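ARCHIVE CARD
CATEGORY: sequence design from structure
SOURCE FIELD: tokenized fold
FIELD CONTENT:
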């Protein structure tokens, strides 16, 4: 695949980001999970979120949005939210490009990257394991009663391969 370009998103990117995010998370709705926090986010909500988080967007060489991820750093811990890739572009390295760009953008003194993902899915868990994240805890009955598995990565420590 042609190289993916990841940049910090601007407000004009938000409609396309929301469109791809909706398509991406709909796969989980098909499994009966409540995915509304991802699939029904409004322009107003993402605009508000962008005042406290950095949003990164991945594009193809023609500029089409392929996916996005957001993060916020609090007291040295980087909280990652809503990583998503357009369904027809999964398994082409876009998710990896987003996570690598995120790790390049975090503050130098951040000691931990933390994220939680849906427990009952087949794709997210191998993805985060391949990205070097390790499972830390389960959050049962969390957002919209969904069970989450939380992962951590410690940029300043050596992680197992
Ligand atoms: C999870 C997600 C972001 C992965 O994005 P992606 O672009 O397909 O992932 P990549 O192609 O960059 O894959 C990176 C690594 O993860 C592995 N991987 C990705 N999806 C996988 C799957 N379904 N099963 C097994 N391994 C997988 C790849 O093999 C690759 O490892 P390798 O390079 O060593 O071979 C994507 O599937 C997605 O958008 N899912 C729906 C939204 C979602 O649930 N996001 C997570 C919410 S927190």
């Amino acid at each position: 695949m042609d190289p993916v370009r990841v940049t910090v998103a601007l407000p004009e990117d938000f409609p396309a980001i929301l469109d791809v995010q909706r398509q991406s998370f709909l796969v989980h709705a098909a499994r009966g999970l409540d995915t509304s926090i991802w699939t029904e986010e409004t322009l107003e909500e993402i605009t508000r979120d962008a005042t406290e988080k950095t949003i990164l967007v991945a594009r193809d060489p023609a500029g089409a949005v392929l996916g996005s991820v957001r993060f916020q750093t609090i007291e040295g811990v980087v909280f990652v939210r809503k990583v998503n890739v357009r369904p027809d572009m999964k398994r082409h390295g876009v998710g990896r490009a987003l996570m690598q760009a995120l790790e390049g953008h975090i503050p130098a003194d951040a000691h931990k990257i933390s994220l939680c993902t849906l427990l009952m899915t087949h794709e997210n868990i191998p993805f985060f394991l391949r990205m070097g994240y390790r499972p830390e805890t389960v959050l049962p009955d969390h957002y919209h009663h969904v069970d989450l598995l939380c992962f951590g990565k410690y940029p300043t420590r050596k992680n197992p391969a």
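CARD ANNOTATION: The chain has a mean pLDDT of 93. The chain is about 30% helix and 30% strand.
SHELF: design records, drawer C
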